[in-house]
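Posting this for the archive.
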Amino acid sequence: MVFSFENAPNGFITKLSYDQQKTSESVVENVVENERKIVELIHSNPKYTAIQIAILLQLNQRTVQRYLRQMQEKGIIERIGSARGGSWKIIKIG
């Protein structure tokens, strides 16, 4: 992230610019790291709910639900049983 200042008639203008590639890489790293943490939690307790995972990882519940859905689509995890009484199964890691 780069800040720059320009003079203006009544003061100055602050501009913020950032490197799109670095930002994208950072987002991807966060996603991969959060997925890894979710897999670790599921490994320790397959019955964790999205709410419990969100609390433990200090993430928004919807964010965790999105991660879980994406991880299911990637074939990383699978839901066994019902939403309330079921559990998670790790299919593949990494």
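The beta strands are 2-8, 11-17, 77-80, 87-90. The radius of gyration is 20 Å.
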